[in-house]
């Protein structure tokens, strides 16, 4: 993948922060599980950046309860500003009605796999990417890196997938994986993610402005 082929997404739980991403990001990812009234926030949104929406359950690192999580996600896909919907592999695999409804709204699907405990072996990463790609338009992997080899395995998986024509993205969690948020795009990741406003609780995050500058610097130095 060419260095200029990636998109930059600013992540937020509060759409009023989206204005700060204009001129920097290509998308805003709205984490609906962190919002009090997410559908009202989408209705009020008047920003210029297209939206990615997600609604993470606890088992995928979010806070959404299961009672109406998927119905809210499906409703969000109907808003004109929403161009992409991020849904977990486990969810999309089990919920045929959700797949059908999301496709009706002409949005692209990011199908994601989260492993916050470890980094699977490269063969398993390849299988996960393929399955995510089977269900969606972009395969997203977020894993926990405990060794340098974990970050390397993720980057190699991105590279192999992109060479096969698969759109892939993601990053590794933890201090050892932090740099993958920057260099992942140079190994095939199609989207780089960063919080619009940094959260001091998330030690391995890189805020949007800093990530944008780092990406530009690395690209210019290649």
Automatic annotation (TrEMBL):
Pfam families, per database record: DHquinase_I
Signal peptide region: none
UniProt key word tRNA processing: no
InterPro entries associated with the record: Aldolase_TIM, DHquinase_I, Type-I_3-dehydroquinase
Taxonomy, superkingdom: Archaea
SUPFAM superfamilies reported for this sequence: Aldolase
Name of the top EC class for this enzyme: lyase
GO BP terms: 3,4-dihydroxybenzoate biosynthetic process
Keyword field: Lyase, Schiff base
EC number(s) from the headed UniProt entry: 4.2.1.10
Gene Ontology terms, MF aspect: 3-dehydroquinate dehydratase activity
Reactions the enzyme catalyzes: 3-dehydroquinate = 3-dehydroshikimate + H2O
Name of the molecule in the record: 3-dehydroquinate dehydratase
Organism of derivation: Haloferax massiliensis
């Amino acid at each position: 993948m060419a260095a200029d082929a990636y998109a930059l997404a600013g992540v937020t739980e509060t759409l009023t922060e989206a204005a700060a991403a204009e001129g920097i990001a290509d998308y805003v990812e709205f984490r609906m599980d962190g919002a009090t009234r997410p559908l009202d926030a989408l209705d009020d949104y008047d920003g210029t950046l297209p939206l990615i929406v997600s609604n993470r359950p606890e088992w995928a690192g979010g806070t959404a309860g299961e009672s109406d999580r998927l119905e809210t996600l499906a409703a969000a896909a109907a808003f004109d500003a929403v161009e992409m919907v991020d849904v977990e592999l486990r969810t999309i695999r089990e919920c045929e009605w959700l797949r059908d409804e999301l496709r009706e709204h002409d949005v692209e699907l990011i199908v994601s796999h989260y492993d916050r405990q470890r980094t699977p072996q490269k063969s398993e990463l390849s299988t996960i990417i393929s399955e995510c790609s089977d269900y969606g338009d972009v395969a997203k992997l977020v894993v926990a890196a405990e060794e340098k080899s974990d970050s390397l395995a993720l980057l190699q998986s991105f590279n192999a997938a992109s060479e096969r024509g698969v759109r892939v993205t993601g990053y590794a969690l933890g201090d050892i994986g932090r740099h993958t948020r920057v260099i992942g795009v140079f190994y095939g990741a199609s989207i780089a993610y960063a919080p619009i406003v940094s959260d001091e609780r998330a030690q391995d995050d890189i805020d949007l402005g800093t990530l944008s500058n780092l990406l530009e610097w690395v690209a210019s130095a290649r």
